[in-house]
């Protein structure tokens, strides 16, 4: 199985109900996310399309791994944002609790996490997260 990038007019995999070309694709190309939730959604979309460089760029340098390999056998199916705390346009920190649903050769997989985000040089970055 390989990663597939949606077309600009296709629905964005992040689930906001907006076309990929107007939603997460501009963030993947360097536009800053306006909120922590939007960054989290764009990171989920990066897992869907296999954009490891974006995941590393949007990760706080203090907690970012040196490299990252994505598993092409996972097919990410759905993102459920459960709660966002702070992380707005005028905040410096935020948290987003979510469940990401995937399919693997073994069956359904769910990743539930409370992620922490912070502003770094004016842009939101992923700091770390706690599995739930």
UniProtKB/TrEMBL annotation:
Domain (YchJ-like middle NTF2-like): residue spans on this chain: 35-129
UniProt-listed InterPro entries: NTF2-like_dom_sf (IPR032710), YchJ-like_M (IPR048469)
Domain of life: Bacteria
Pfam families named in the record: YchJ_M-like (PF17775)
Protein name: Zinc chelation protein SecC
């Amino acid at each position: 199985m390989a990663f597939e990038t949606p077309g600009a007019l296709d629905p964005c995999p992040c689930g906001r109900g907006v076309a990929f070309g107007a939603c997460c694709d501009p963030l993947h190309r360097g536009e800053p996310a306006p909120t922590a939730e939007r960054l989290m959604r764009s990171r989920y979309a990066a897992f869907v399309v296999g954009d490891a460089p974006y995941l590393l760029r949007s990760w706080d340098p203090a907690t970012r791994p040196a490299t990252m390999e994505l598993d092409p056998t996972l097919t990410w199916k759905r993102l459920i944002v459960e709660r966002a705390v702070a992380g707005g346009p005028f905040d410096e920190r935020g948290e987003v609790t979510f469940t990401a649903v995937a399919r693997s050769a073994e069956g359904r997989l769910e990743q539930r996490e409370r992620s922490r985000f912070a502003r770094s040089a004016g842009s939101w970055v992923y700091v770390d997260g706690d599995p739930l």
